[in-house]
Predict the structure.
Amino acid sequence: MSIAGKLIEELERDQEARRRLAEILVTDGEVRLAIINAVLADVATKRDLETLRAELKADIKRVEDNLKALIEREISRLERRIDALENRVNSIEARLSRLEGQMNLFVKLFIAFNLPILLAVIGILLRLVFA
């Protein structure tokens, strides 16, 4: 095993040695600057947050516009279907009215043709009973 590997193993086992190494590294200006620069590379700046906020607003606006368009398309599709159903119902109502008129005429014709026959049969029966 290399010296570096042994050093790492020793630092993993010895907490006090790790702490002393950290103090030494932090007190060295160049090392401290390197650590700060490395950490700062991962830190989000105010500008980063503002950019992210603007991107999120744009994304939200795009999703909102897409939803509005989808809702409008669906409403339009539903209105067309409702109109088609109304037309079908109106057609059924018209056919039903015609059928009702035809049935009324049929009943009237039935009565007109069969009433004289019925009266004649009743008259004949009455004659037979009272004769």
Q: What stands out?
A: The radius of gyration is 49 Å. The first helix runs from residue 3 to 13. The chain is about 90% helix and 0% strand.
